[in-house]
Each structure stands twice: as structure tokens, then as C-alpha cells.
Amino acid sequence: MSVTVLSVATRAVLDACAKMDLDPDAILVAAGLSREQVFEPDARIPVPLADAVWLEASRQAQDPLLALKAARALEFGAYKVLDFIVANAPTVGEGLSRIARYFPLVDPRGRFETEGDGDRVTLSFGSGAADVPAPAQQYTFAALVLRSRASTGTNWRLESVDFTFPADAQPQVYAEIFGCPVNFAMPRPQLVIPHGSWMQPVEGANEALFCVLEDHARHLLGEVPVEEPGLLEKLQAELRTRLRGGDASVAVVAKTLGMSERTLQRRLDEFQVSYSDVLNEVREELGREYLREPDVSIAEIAFLLGFSDQSAFGRAFKRWTGSTPRAWRVADARRAVSVGVASPRE
Asked: Domain boundary residue among 192, 222, 252?
């Protein structure tokens, strides 16, 4: 079963192109799609065809802000269930956390992670690829912020926005959309939201309707086709198993995956990542999970993740997060109490 994405973003980029005097139908033909496949309200499009539309639109538009313009072109209700869940969530943060949870309804390849330290909440965006393309970062964050503000009827404040791509030549457009400092060439794409904004009540929210809509979203999520695991997903899964006290060397893992060490390295080159990149990504993920378990000592975590000692783990964790393991554990525990953010594992 092929993996599909909701057609809303595809329609949005075509609408933006039309406003730039480009021909949406010509873009669709070049991408191998028909208007019927895209403009049906609940249509889902195979991932390669949806990506082809964005690539062709970008090629014709030659505009680095095309994705931002597409996000601004959307009207309230375009994302149906998600828009109305946000509009009826008790707080801005509850609405955003539901977008994070049900984002696979829009695009199964994307994932959000939420962290908080009591003063702010960080919403980061990623995928199974080495990095999220710049247009996907622009569109996703702009659509999320603009739609949440429209749905909740409040211009809630952002502290900052981080993108991984280089600085754009038109920073004023970002300022108009996000209304906060925008940072480029950062380690990961993320929104930093003050605690006050996260906890801001949504006027007119209907709790009963919110519950009904969430039940419906949960049902829809169960019907979303799951992509057959690719090499990166298989490698990550194998490392998660082995980074619990087992041998995570490249030679052993490659053999388990049914290939030579050289073949594995060559295949990873196609994704522009190295074995150590993937290993460190999984180590960071598991490190955070272990630190949330109060009964597991930091020394034990270092051993489980394959570090020579606790100090080596501490240095690596600080490179990944900017915080020591002990400080991160304390801040995360405080965040769980004061912010009430659902764990990514839930």
C-alpha cells in the first residue's frame, strides 16, 4: 500500500503559483497529476507525486518564499479535523500538542517532538530523512502558527523560530508571519513558545466537541497507510535494540541487516548521512528516554548507550542538547509537572 499525503498543501502551492501568474495546470501535467486528483476536498496523493508538484512549482516560480506564500493562502477549515480540534482545545498548547500527535494525517513522514523547561516549550519538526527540506520547514511552521492563531482567535506570541537552512534575503516576510526573532542555519527546525502562550486559554472552546473531534482524528490516524520501513528506519530500529547493552558496531549491525559494512556505508551516502550520524541520533533519542526514568542512573545510561564512561556520555549529550544529562533530567521533570506536555512516547 503506497504512502499518501493530504492534498491540502498541494492545492495551497498551486494557489500561490496562480497568484504569481504561473499556470497550475501546467505544473500538474509536469508532475503527472490531474485536477481531479488534487482538488477533491479529502483527496490523498501518493508521496512521489505530491513531491513532484512542489519541485515543479519551485522550478517555475524561482521564489525562495513560495512555501511561505502557500501557507498564507490557506483559509481556516482547509485542514478540517485538525483546524477544528485546535479551535476547540482548552488551551493553545493543547491544540498544538494535538497537531503534533495527529500530524501523520497530513504527512506520515513528518514527526513533532515537544520539550519544556517550565519557562518555554520547544516544538521541533523532523522526518526519517537526514534533514527536512527548506520548503517543508517553511510551509509546516507557517501553516501551523497561522492556523493555530486563526483557530484560537488569539495572536499568541512566539519566542523564536529556528530553521536549518541558510538565512533568506527577505527576513521581513518571516517577521510578518511569526512576529518573533527568526534564526537560520540552526541544528534543528523548531518553534520556541513561551509558557504563557502555551497555557493561554482558547476563547469559545467547546470541550465536548473537542473530545468528539479527537476521537475522530484517532480513528482516521488508524487508517493512514504506514510506509514500508526503508534502510534508515531499519537501521534506527536495529540500533535501538542494540543500544541496550549490545554490540552496536557498524560491522555487526551491517551483517544483521544482510549486507557488508562497505555496502551499508555506500547506501547511507545516498541519504547524505554517515553511520555515526544515525548512531548519535538514536543515542540522543534513547538518552532522553532513559533520563525520564528516575530509577536509571546516568552511569547506567552511559553503559547502555555504549559510551566508555559517564563523562563521555555527558560530553556527547551536551553537544546534542546544550545541557548536561543531570540538568536536562531535572528540567524535564519540572516541565512534566508545570507544563503538562504529553510524552512523545504516549
From this structure: 222
pLDDT band for 272, please (50, 70, 90 cuts): low
Whether residues 53 and 70 share a domain: the answer is: no
Per-residue pLDDT tens over the stretch 218-250 = 988 887 765 545 787 788 888 988 887 678 899
Give the structural domain span for 2: 1-62
Give the integer Cα–Cα distance in Å for 114 and 346: 12
Last residue of a domain, one of 196, 222, 248: 222
Q: Based on the domain organization, do 9 and 70 belong to the same domain?
A: no
- Cell 540552526 belongs to residue: 186
The answer to whether residue 113 scores a pLDDT higher than 70 is: yes
* Residue 117 host element (H or E): none
Percent with pLDDT over 90 in the chain: 41
pLDDT tens-digit map of 182-200:
999 998 899 999 999 999 9
Domain shared by 177 and 264, yes or no = no
Q: For residue 204, what are the contacts with CB-CB under 8 A and spacing of at least 6?
A: 87, 153
Give the DSSP letter of residue 104.
Answer: G
* Residue 345 counted as domain residue: no
SS3 assignment, position 223: coil
Number of folded domains that form the chain: 3
Distance between CA atoms of residues 311 and 247, nearest Å: 20
Question: What is the DSSP pairing of strand 110-116 with strand 120-127?
Answer: antiparallel
Shared domain for 90 and 191, answered yes or no, is yes
Alpha helices in the chain (DSSP H): 8-19, 24-31, 35-39, 47-61, 66-73, 81-88, 92-102, 134-152, 171-178, 195-198, 207-222, 231-242, 250-256, 261-269, 275-291, 298-304, 310-321, 325-338
Are 225 and 1 spatial neighbours (Cβ–Cβ below 8 Å)? Answer: yes
Which phi and psi angles does 308 have, rounded to 5°? -65, -35
- The DSSP bridge pattern shows strands 160-162 and 182-183 to be parallel
Q: Which of 280, 263, 279, 293 is nearest to 321 (CA)?
A: 280
